[in-house]
Amino acid sequence: MSRNDVLVTADWAEENLGTPGLVFVEVDEDTSAYDGGHLEGAVKLDWKKDLQDPLRRDFVDKAGFEALLSSRGIANDDTVILYGGNNNWFAAYAYWYFKLYGHENVKLIDGGRKKWELDGRPLSKDPVERPATQYQAKEPDLSIRAFRDEVVASIGSKNLIDVRSPDEFSGKILAPAHLPQEQAQKGGHVPTAKNIPWSKAANEDGTFKTDEQLAELYAEQGYDESKATIAYCRIGERSSHTWFVLRELLGKSDVKNYDGSWVEYGSLVGVPIEK
Amino acid sequence: MDIGDQTVIQGQVWHDGAPVAGAYVRLLDSTDEFTAEVVTSPEGEFRFFAAPGKWKVRSLAPIGKGERLLDADVGLNETTIVID
Q1: pLDDT less than 50: residues of chain B
Q2: Is the Cβ pair B37, A178 closer than 8 Å?
């Protein structure tokens, strides 16, 4: 796996809009962004409505994912090109999610929606219709998803990477500062976790730093190459960004995303917390 | 909006005598580390839920950049960022 297998530039994306076999997919936190203008031909995934179970706190199941992708006109052999706002947080989350259900070819647009807008590239409001497919998902690949018990058992033994901002890590604030301050019962972080904010891996325009800069960043912060890794944040989207960096760009093995993240961990009864 | 005991930082981004819609505004903590980022509304407005202390707000738009330092207290903290 190398950068070119998992990441495309905005230039490449603009030149390849409409190419058969490619499906551009926008995934945002602000789910109304797509409606205000999107890449020509791109379909929308609503991270909350489409990717979360409507009742329980969990993903949609395999059948639900198959129905979703079929309805969006995404076929198993399509190359899915993901992009979104918030420096690609939710696009990276969707990338991880597509990988979890075994989709072969997935890539991110470097810089996502932000770079696209800052470059002044065209957006379209035309409705996008794609003929339905018969999508077949694989069983979820749990080698890339961590659950709470594994996180607790990993204290002091695995690389635990808390990718939230320093103020969230210290418990000063409980959520990213563009959201009302609520959520987990307690502030702080998992003991022995290192705070390596996702933002250190990105440039101001939302693009990823170079492989050399990224390798240096994690080495500097004490990333232990001999250990397995679990990344977490508040609800699992920023940690998907770091998961993407570690596993897909830097090619590290045994990296999991803990999507339960702080909203779950900080509300668990009896687990250790550090501030 | 009832902000209760929250520390809200809000304001507008301006350029050339008019509010800037669709600008990216990021909130940086006292060590200059990224804390959050939002896109301004059609009226050029942004809002963060932060904590008391020193912050920097920086805006990034196709027309340029601007930034402002502020010391926030509990309650509403209003500021304007001007892109020259």
Answers
A1: none
A2: yes
The model's pTM is 0.93
Chain A residues in contact with B29 by the CB 8 A cut-off are 165-167
Containing H/E element for B33?
A: none
Confidence of residue A86 (pLDDT cuts 50, 70, 90): confident
CB-CB neighbors (< 8 A) of B34 in chain A: 165, 197, 199
State the burial class of residue A71 (Cβ atoms within 10 Å of its Cβ: 0-12, 13-18, 19+): middle
Q: Which of these three, A140, A173, A192, is where a domain ends?
A: A140
Q: Confirm if A183 and A175 have CB atoms less than 8 A apart.
A: yes
Q: pLDDT digit string (tens) for A198-254?
A: 999 999 999 999 999 999 999 999 999 999 999 999 999 999 999 999 999 999 999
Distance between B29 CA and the closest CA of chain A, angstroms: 8
Inter-chain contact B37–A118, Cβ cutoff 8 Å? no
Greatest extent of chain B over all pairs of C-alpha atoms, in Å: 36
Rg (CA), chain A: 18
Which structural domain, as residue segments, surrounds residue A167?
A: 143-265
Cα A180 from Cα A158, distance rounded (Å): 32
Check which CATH number belongs to the domain holding A124 and give it.
3.40.250.10
Q: Based on the structure, what is the number of domains in chain A?
A: 2
